[in-house]
Amino acid sequence: MKFSENWLRCLVPIDLDRVRLVERLTMAGLEVESVELIGAGLGSVVVGEIVEAVPHPAADRLRVCRVDVGDGRPLQIVCGAPNARVGLRAPLAPVGASLPGGVEIKSASLRGVESSGMLCSARELGIDADASGLLELPSDARPGACVSEVLGLPDAVLELKLTPNRADCLGMEGLAAELGSLCGVEWQRAASVPVPATAKSTVLATLNAGDACPRYLSRVIEAIDATAATPGWMRERLQRAGVRPVSAVVDAGNYVMLETGQPTHAFDLAQVGEGLEVRWARPGERVSLLDGHEVQAQGDTLLVADARGPLGLAGVMGGMPSRVTDATRDLLLEAAHFAPHAVAGKARQYSLSSEAAHRFERGVDHELPRRAIERLTGLLLSICGGRAGPVSEACLPEQLPEPARIFLRLARIERVLGIAPGKVEVERILGSLGMKLENTDAGWQVTPPSRRFDLAIEEDLIEEIARVIGYDAIPVRVPAGAINAPALPEGRLEPVALAETLRQRGYTEVLNFSFIDAELLRRWGVDASAVPLANPLSAEMSVMRTALLPGLVETLARNLARQHARVRLFEAGRVFRQAGQGAAPAETLRIAGVACGSAKPEQWGEPTRSLDFHDLKGDVEQLIALAGTAASRFEFASGTPHWLHPGRSAALLEGGRTVGWLGALSPSLLRSTGIDTEVFAFECDLDPLISRTVARAEDPSRFPSVRRDLALIVADSLPFAEVAACVRSAAGPLLRELVLFDRFISEDLPSGSKSVAIGLILQEPSRTLTEQDVAGVVASVVGALQMKLGARLRG
Prior knowledge:
Elements: E1 2-4, H1 5-11, H2 18-27, E2 31-38, E3 46-56, E4 59-68, E5 75-79, E6 89-93, E7 98-99, E8 103-104, E9 108-110, E10 113-115, E11 118-119, H3 122-125, H4 147-151, E12 155-161, H5 172-183, E13 205-207, E14 215-222, H6 232-240, H7 248-260, E15 265-268, E16 276-280, E17 286-288, E18 294-296, E19 302-306, E20 309-313, E21 317-318, E22 331-337, H8 340-343, H9 346-349, H10 355-360, H11 368-384, E23 387-388, E24 392-395, E25 406-409, H12 410-417, H13 423-432, E26 436-439, E27 443-447, H14 458-469, H15 495-504, E28 508-509, E29 515-516, H16 518-524, E30 543-544, H17 549-560, E31 567-577, E32 586-596, H18 613-625, E33 634-637, E34 644-654, E35 657-665, H19 667-673, E36 679-685, H20 686-690, E37 706-715, H21 720-731, E38 735-744, E39 753-762, H22 771-789, E40 792-793
Parallel strand pairs: 13-16, 28-31
Antiparallel strand pairs: 1-12, 2-12, 3-4, 3-6, 4-5, 6-11, 7-8, 9-10, 14-22, 14-23, 14-24, 15-22, 16-19, 17-18, 19-20, 20-21, 25-27, 26-27, 29-30, 31-32, 32-36, 33-34, 34-35, 35-36, 37-39, 37-40, 38-39
Helix pairs in contact: 1-5, 6-7, 7-11, 21-22
């Protein structure tokens, strides 16, 4: 929320300087996110009235103006602004003045015509970004008066980062009430008195949505001048709050919303039929909205409608056909209470954005509509003229929110805060916050004001007391008590161990959203059983991810686009799949990584080479090794998804079940992602990797080991994993280690064959092996290899 500091000080008389004001608000939980100073150093800029404007004799786009500055000696100013005209009053910087940005005004000759100063736009004054023309000042601004006084400068625009529970501070009056309580001063509401009816026209509303809209006020204003200009003071306050002025009727409504926190709406009465009604949408109803969009309302959408159809989305946005234009003569004003549950998420559902929805979905005081409609009526009559009819109210009293009654104990305050503020101080603080207190034997029965619907339990009231006292005034005391850490099972690794291993191998951890673009999943072919979101944040986040790699590769692509040639990224997180009709989505923990570029950082000690499949396989094997002796249950095999290169990839199996994949990404997939370099990736289920065998200590054998080397000729297409499995099965318990130390291909070998050399390391823990023992194992291994795999010894 943005607001003008000067506006706030008009409502609450505080003696804090700007620095202390920002600190006080922030320490009370109303974080000030930014402070923008505007209008400083404009003391020499004055109001000038253009009394003559003629075309420049040598430039079509320039005008030679004579400008009255109140001293009877008009200045000659050459101006190129399109809105420079006789009668306009605008800021004038005379010769010798300084403007923001270090601009000094000097006498100049423009195309042969002398100019003694400069007429200024809002941008040149540093108070707004608008540079389309001269800043138009109020018609009653006195020529020669200081512009700072006319515009209420200097000022500061403060922006609050409000938490969703503090919707009461989305209006200046709510913020003033909060600050008044924090500083112990009385705040003042803006002048608002009931406007007597001078016309008889009324429009009654019927409420057919229960507690979604329990109160609706309307009022007719006849014979307005919709072309009337918005007062300068109102325009300035709106602009400093980040609201663009549009027209007097729209601006007055926005101003009342910013002032009170209550959104209102104005209809063109001529476009409103009979039978005004607040109801739920009917099947097939379409609404044409003020922003130009047309939406089909769903059945859970609240509408304001007449007998002919919808007039707008209640609490979100009005309709285009009933909008106020310059031709509007009669208005129908609306001020209603729409419950948060009826508005929450509706703007996002229809891809809309509105200040009204921002407030209603967080909650607006149900007592505000009457004050807001009276305040809006008074402003409109003073700006646009007209005659006001009586206020019509439709109300469902039984559906209005009930005020909370909270029991507060003094002893509980002392226990939670660690201080004893005293009964008188507690009553003063809660009273300043607008709460009603009833004394009891043990404390108070407290009724919060209707604007503070976020207060529901005793701890909420204690927090309010702490905020007003100041968190920095509460002493720091370490709570006593023993904390028993849970015992972690030895047979299970913490996922952080895998993350730390990858970090040590040069990977950087990233955190992507669990939401992802459905089109991206389709491109990867992993969109089956994707879980759609009912209210996505954007079209690019419309489904829950079914795999980690699509989002991870997109992150890699962004890094490559920023000239990072050697990238290693990993992510550990959940993936989601639909689990059946009505069931909650199935969640699986996964870990994934992507890598590209050189195998090692650039150095002088060895030549640079590109990353290959075996580098990535080594990274995955390092994760598997964390499982200790349980790592033997994993194996690599062929059979991978289409998004991996078919000849340079592998599946990771645990007990014959696929738990992951690794390899080079498919070139066609990389082209669709805009990546022009080779990328290697892996993705594995996390649970199998973090399940390990508890290590057991064993005495090393006192007897020597024996090594026998075998050179085998096997089919070139035979994976070594099958050779290793066959050897281990045939060798039995005497095999301590199997080593692959050579792979050889030559024209001397049969076509389609390769030679692999393996080392068998044999050992018996209780005795020395005999030659007969070793020969028996070797014969068994050779026989099994010949029978099962067609291997033969190479001579």
